Amino acid sequence: MSAEVWTYLLVGLSFTLYIGIAIWSRAGTTGDFYIAGGNVPPMVNGLATAADWMSAASFISMAGLISFMGRDGTVYLMGWTGGYVLLALLLAPYLRKFGKYTVPDFVGDRYYSNVARVVAVVCAIFISFTYVAGQMRGVGIVFSRFLDVDINTGVVIGMAIVFFYAVLGGMKGITYTQVAQYCVLIFAYMVPAFFISFMFTDIAIPQLGFGSQLSDGSGLTVLERLNQLSTELGFDPYTDGQKSTLDVFFITAALMVGTAGLPHVLVRFYTVPKVADARSSAGWALLFIALLYTTAPAISAFARTNILDTVANMPYEEAPSWFSNWEAIGLITFDDKNDDGIVQYRGPHATDYENELNIDKDIIVLANPEIADLPAWVIGLIAAGGLAAALSTAAGLLLVISSSVAHDLLKKTFKPDISERQELLIARIAAGVAVVIAGYFGINPPGFVAQVVAFAFGLAAASFFPVMVLGIFWKRMNKYGAIFGMITGIGFTAAYIIFFKFVSPELNSAEHWFLGISPEGIGTLGMLINVVVSVSVSLVTPPPPKEIQQFVEDIRVPV
Hints:
The chain has 559 residues and is mostly helical. The chain has helices spanning 3-24, 30-35, 42-53, 56-69, 74-98, 103-110, 114-146, 151-201, 206-209, 222-232, 245-259, 263-266, 275-293, 296-310, 321-328, 364-371, 376-414, 420-443, 449-473, 479-503, 522-539, 546-556, and strands at 332-334, 357-359. It has a domain at 3-305 and 370-450: Sodium/glucose cotransporter (Up-down Bundle), CATH 1.20.1730.10.
């Protein structure tokens, strides 16, 4: 069968599975809709958390970033995995003991203020829409290439699928759907990696093949060969970094702290039966995530080597079929500036630098099986995996948006007398509206997938992390500190990102950034500003009531 037939078959089967699970596990109560009834086993929750976490950025875009950025791209690996250590130690068990539905729920009750709750809702919605834009963009890319539709049509198809199982099943449906999606995405990611690693090094395990000698008899390792190819074409050595140490630190810290502040990840720890299960499920999630994350550097190096070997300086007329396939949807472009018919792909350090080739960073994982000439069924499998990764996270984010509107704004703030049935209906309507808005951002994304997601992490780091940690570990933290801290933290971070990415993109370079900190890393500074403002304001305003201070003590006492 052709790759197209395999793609339709595997994507169709996976979608049928997701919809079937959503129907089987549909939510009947608000508890089911928001936290899956609070009885999800730790290992199952770890699988669902891993799928919720490993979005299109992890599956589709992260390897592309490392492939093009080399060592600098590893900040995403370090930041995203390190964040789970913070989650397990600082937040997960305490949130489970608190035992409500949402992160704004915690903020509203801990800081005894509906104003704080509303600020938290605004932050959660802003972060979630920023994050979901990247997921819908990923869905569109997969559909456009493998199902022969344009990117916008692909986004609309993805919207319809997410709408069905997120609106019908709520957190209960999403949780069990995400378990299936994790199995699909990890299988889809690992199978091509096994194939390609064996082709390059005769070692099937990519984590080992990554550091082994090539099987071509050259005596070079994968990275030595890649450094050689890169420097010959005028690029920096692949294993050298170009970012400043300060920027690397700030990006890594923003991703770590952002992980521990993302509302769609935090809410997963409300779904387990016991406090101890929250920490346990964080450990399971880190294990399942590590399977993909330790494979990504190998995928990146193999793909980069393949591209430099097969595409650089080849006659355009002899371009392989995968090149033409991705060129047809605009994710590879060739501009023959000197009309010689040769695809010139040279870095800025080449003596005759004139790069004629542009490759979208988001296609590396998806194109890898075609570049390596793997069997057609592997190409279909990678499409199903990419969709599973994007849809699983999109569903979790949309649930955060709907619960923020229905539970935190209406039920807890403006209309506390609504019935459970009315609240569930409003939550479903809010999820439907959120799907439409998310689709718009997927059609008009503010950047490539991993970059958009990095902005969401910065916003989460600057808004939620300080108020969560201070709220758990410092009794003196009050509502005034929380409100002003969240507003200044997310306000500063959002303004910095918007200025350099949208208002003045021509200034988006290290010489114009504050202290050389990129928009992807500015969330760390936003977090520090939040902490300073929160502590300062709390110290000069009245302390929390005695019952709130006792509430903080009770959260930290094991049961």
